[in-house]
Structures are given as C-alpha cells and as structure tokens.
Please model this.
Amino acid sequence: MQRAAFFSGGDAQMAAGDLGELLVPYMPTIRVPKSGDRVYKTECAFSYDSPESEGGLYVCMNTFLGFGREHIERHYRKTGQCVYLHLKRHVIEKVPGASGGALPKRRNAKLFLDVETNSDLNNDDFEYEDEAKLVIFPDHYEILLPNIEELPALVTIACDALLSAKSPYRKQDPDSWEEELQASKHAKTLVQLDNGVRIPPSGWKCSKCDLRENLWLNLTDGSVLCGKWFFDGSGGNGHAMEHYKETGYPLAVKLGTITPDGADVYSFDEEEPVLDPHIAKHLAHFGIDMLQMQVTENGLRDNDIKPRVSEWEVIQEAGVKLKPMYGPGYTGMKNLGNSCYLNAVMQAIFSIPEFQRAYVGNLPRIFDYSPLDPTQDFNTQMAKLGHGLLSGQYSKPPMKSELIEQVMKEEHKPQHNGISPRMFKAFISKGHPEFSSNRQQDAQEFFLHLINLVERNPVGSENPSDVFRFLVEERTQCCQSRKVRYTERVDYIMQLPVAMEAATNKDELIAYELKRREAEAARRPPPELVRAKIPFSACLQAFSEPNNVEDFWSSALQAKSAGVKTSRFASFPEYLVVQIKKFTFGLDWIPKKLDVSIDMPDFLDINHLRARGLQPGEEELPDIAPPIIIPDDPKDRMTNHFVESLDIDESSVMQLAEMGFPLEACRKAVYYTGNLGAEVAFNWIIAHMEEPDFAEPLVIPAFGEVASSGAAVFGAVGLDNQPPEEMVAIIISMGFQRNLAIQALKATNNNLERALEWIFSHPELEEESEPALDMMDMENNANANILAETGSEGPRIKDGSGRYELFGFISHMGTSTMSGHYVCHLKKEGRWVIYNDLRVCASERPPKDLGYIYFYHRIPS
Model:
C-alpha cells in the first residue's frame, strides 16, 4: 500500500487551491446526503467493524455505505468510487489529576453525532476522541478534517451532512424497532437520595391521587407518581411531571415494565423515552431486583409472587458462577430491544455445519457477487452474521495482565466483545409488521420466517434449509365407511402437544393451586412454585393419536361425516426441530403459557412413527371433490369459492394465533386457503400481511360480489389462462417447482386442495418436468450469478434413520410470546454453553426440561 499523504497542519499544509485541484476530478462522485438517504457510518456492510475498530470505518461519499479496512478495496474495485470519509473513534482512559480524580480530556464532540457509544465504556474512567479525514483511493491520500477553508464548499457541506446524519435504523413510525432509544445523558451521573425508600413488589399507587395505573418511579427519590393521561395510552393526572418541575429529578421508570431484560425509562428533561445503562443499579437502590421481576397478564409486577424457582432464574442459571467462553463459535449478540428471539434462533442456526458451509464457507464468493447495496441482500447479510459469530474476531478473552489489573483494582475493564445485528434485523424484518416492530416475538414464528427467506434466496448447489424439511403423511379416515385417504405435506417443525392430563404430580398441583389462591386473597406471598411434571412419552403419544376432523366431507358418502386424521413421518429430516406447544388461549381468549417441566431425552428414537402408506385391507376414499355451486351468470365465476357456507378450521386458527398473528387475519388465512391446515394458511399470511385490511374482520361477499382478499387467492383464471399467482406461490413454498404448480392448478380448475392431491398422484410428471429456478423477490439480488439450478424431483428431503441426539434448545421466560425473554443452550465440544444475548458462558445446569424449541441431529446409522 502506498504511503498516505497527510494534508493538514505544520509543514504538510497545502494551499487551498492545491486541495481544490486535488478533489476536482472526483467532484461529480461526491454527493450531499438528502432526506431519505441512509448513511451507514456506524457499521461495515460486510463485517461488524465500526469507527471503534482498529482500522476505523470508511464511508463512501457517493453511496454512504460503510466499509471496514478489510472490505474497502472490494468496494473501490467494484464501483470505482474514490473518495471516502474515514471515521475513527479512540477510546482512552482519563488522566488522573493531582487530587486523585480524573481530568476530563478534550473531546472532539462535533464529529460523530448519533454514533452509538459502547455501554461497557460508559463510566468515569473512559472517554472518546473522534477523528475524521477524507481518503482518496487508490493512492490513499488523506485530508484531515475539519478543513473548512481549504476544501471546496460542496465537499465541506457533504462532510458536515454525513457526520450529522441520523442513524439509518431510525424511522418515523414510533412502533418500529428501528426507532432506537438513546442512552440518557443523566444515566451515568444520576444522583440517588439515601432516604431509605424501598419499593414493594406490588400494590403500588400514586402518592398524590391513589391511582393504581400508569405509575412511574422517580429514580432519584423513589417517589411513585402517575403519568399523563395520554402517555402510553393509560390514565393519569400528571403528578410525575409536576414532581419533576418541582424537584428537577430527571429520570423515571414505569412500574409494570421491569424485567430481567430492561425497563421503560423516561427522561423529563430530554422529553423522550431513553435507555438507562445503569438501570439495574438504580433499581437496586430502592430494593428492586430486576432478575426477580416478571410481567403479569394485566401488565402489573409482582416480585414476591414469583418464588426463587422461577423460570427466569432456572433458565438463565442465576445464582451460579458461570465461566465466560471466548473464541470462534462463542460470540454473543446484543439485544436491540426485545430482539432476543432473533439472537437465540441465529445462534442455533449457525451451530449447524450445513449453514456454516453455505454462508461462511462461501463468504468470499457471496461478497464478490453481492449487489451494489449489500445491506439489502439476504445472502450477504447471512454470511456477514455467520462470520461474525464463528470467526472469533468479536469474542476475544482479556489479556492476563488486564485480568490481574482488574483483580488488583477490584474493577471491571470493559471488553469489545459481541456483535450488534442491527443491519441483519433491519433487512430480514423489512415489510413484516411484527418482526419490524419493537415488540417481543415468537422464536418459532421467526424460525419459519427465516427458513422461508432461505428458500427464496438459494446459494450454492445445496439449500441449507433442506436439513430441516420432512414429509408428513396424513391418514384421514371416514368413521362411517371406514375408507381412508393418504396425503403428504411438507413441514419443518414437529409440534408436540403438552399432555397436561398425564402430569405425574397432580396432587401437588392441586394443593399448590389452593394455597396460591388463599395467599392471593390474603395478599400474602405465594407458596413455593410447583410446576407440572409431564413425561415426554405422554407428549409423543398425544402427537401420534388420531384427531377429529371438523366438518369432514366424506367422498364415499357424498356427505359430511365424522372423520379422524393421523399424522406420521413420511421422511425423517437430518435435523429434527421439536416445538413444545406451551402457548395456548384461556377461556377469555387471553394468550397464556403452560409452565411445565418435560423430561426431554438426550437421545430420541421416533422410528415407530414412520409412515406405512396404504395397508392391506384398507380401501381408499373416492377421488371426488365436494360439490361447488356454479352461478348462472358467467361473470360471477370469480366468486365460485365464496358461496359455500363459512367453514373455518378453528384449530388451525388457534395455531396461527399462537404465533402472534392477529386473530381475524388467521381466520381469513384459514378460510381463503380452504381449511387445508395451518402450514398453507401461514403462507397466505406471509403473502398478504402488508395489505391494509390484513387484520380486518373476515367479510364473506354476497353472491355476485367480488372479494378483495379472496379474489387474490382464488380469483378467476385470467385472459392468459394462468392460475392466480398467489396460489402458485403457496405451492412453490412447499418445495415444488413453478411449472408443476401451474400444471396442477390448471388441471384442477384452481382448486388448491385438489391441486396438491394431483401433484402427489402424478409423480411421473414431477420427474419429467423441466428444471426451474424460482426467482421470487430477486430483483435486487446480484447473487443470482452464483445460484445453482434446482432439481425438479419435488420437495427436497434428506431421509434417513429416526434416531436423534439433542444438541441445542431455546427457552422462553415470561407469560406469553408477546413478552419475556429467550435464551439458547447449545452443546459444543462436549459441553453445554448458554447464549444469553451478549453473555456466552459454560453452562452448569442446562434446564433441558424447560425448553420451548429443541434441536436434534440424526445419529448416523
């Protein structure tokens, strides 16, 4: 690399004309950021380098993309862009003064406005010094900033605009996760009065008006006061604000939002919600232990109501000294605000060799073929995340000298460990109403969303999601005629019901419930928690038992009859994902979680659940579809599928609702996909969730009317005689080729259920169909250059033995999927490791009985 030339200060100073002349050839490529431009000045598009990294960050003055030192040359070669703004943040220790205190060193505070500070370094011993300079490639000429008088006006304006640009992850929508909260300026220096105030775990009320909702705890003096009536949608008389005006005490935390993961903090002085990096210490001052705080269904807190055996403590292995783990595969992920579900799933995904090979193994090729905006490319961001987790570059142990110094000084010296998956989350959640929000989500739903994206963005000759895919054989029997029908469907998760009736400690549960109610009525602390103990064998038995089919229409009787359905594995996946169906609905339709303990086995054999197909002596149901009423007026053919009675499979509706989707949207999804099951309805939801009436109540059009959502799925054949695109997409999402989906729909007059049966009954056409490549949503994906053609043999499966070994599980703490916290445990190098956001430690007591999603790997025969 050619030695850089520095043009500022001392003998190296150049005349203004010289600097202007140097930049003249590049002026057409220098842009001033406009409203709507995203300026990536905090993170590299290909790595997790930032201004705090050793090499700093280079920001292109034309595209405003950021690049670390290892990736800047690639962008220069690909685009020819020559002018970059180099940002470097130096973290330094303050110089001790004569009195023993720290003398604050002058800080260049103007440059990196809106660049996040490292919360680990947010203490009195460290500060920041920022440096910026223009770098001109390929000769690496450097011009230190500010250099206002010497630089052309356009360059000065562009630099100032870039340096003051807001984070690209901010949005106007206050519900968006990208509206990231900033640390309060008062958090580090907050004074707390030693007045002996202790906050009880429940029973709070405003000290001025006795209100019991929308209560805020002032973090300076411990006053509990009500908020404004309009703030947070709750009632109040504004006494918290009045108290601030009288005292000037700036920070308050909302009671009812405190969890081990954080709390809602408001700054009256800054007039906005803020982050308090020291919230645990500030709450402990008033006797509040964050680890013990949990949400009740009405939004209130009750610390004492949850005893020491709470799942928060057990799952996070609280009270046990855990040894931190460092190096490749032991990298933590920052919680961006209720993003622990993403962290847990991605840690599990990238512990699987097939995903490691597909993305990290192909990393150079993926990066070289990435589009001009790599922040908007799925494979690039997956490769970036995988490398960040597996390289060990962001998980380095402290030096021995640093450890000795910390022990001697009894202080913690901050470490630059872990990655912040902001760019990944921003892209993968784009357009999704739930994942793009700041709300907690269901890890199982996110897993399926991720698999959907992997399917739609293939890379290399193999699709890594193939390891999860398996075929389910469904045997449906007419109870009256005893005839049967066998069908197959694709799935990725084995959902195990919780067999509550099989609890082995029923007497203890009954006694505990009586004591709990008595304590609640007397406002006493509850008894020690008794958790239902469910044998895994009972859950497996419940999975294999026949289920009643609602509104079953028997083709043998040509009428509705009683029917039962049994599910078996037509193939066993390489990796078996097992979900425990802990989330359900109460009689009042309020989502709730079953707090149970299941003895999940380390070794699992489900070979007895292998499908056997049509058995001797069984007679198949005739291949006759239910009658369809055809109107006299041909123009009303678009509504043929809407004139039947409103039959909705409520069990499928509940399955979708448990994933967190709006109830009315779930009902529409099940209805418009013809009651074909939750899996098909899930694909409908993914395809329609951006529609403005997505969550509106289901309205069945009258005879002769046109349905908006329905027509989108079951609309009439167009002038080109092509089936509706939405129906084609549903079949493609199951692993079939596009041309086969179109052929099946044409052959069955666009009846989705009959089309699927047609595909399975014509395997010879699957073999003869031409190879096809689904290029859905690939318009911005230049990785198409490295995509391999997909085979045409139908769903790709990796069948084999049904014997498995447990290697990971994801646990959930909290009362529903809409709240709480996720933690991941993985077995690596023969021992269990806990991944709790940024914290990665050797596990001492892995709570395998309290998991939510389990990951098993097939044992080689």
Notes: The longest helix spans residues 506-521. The CA atoms of residues 392 and 559 lie 63 Å apart. The mean pLDDT is 79.
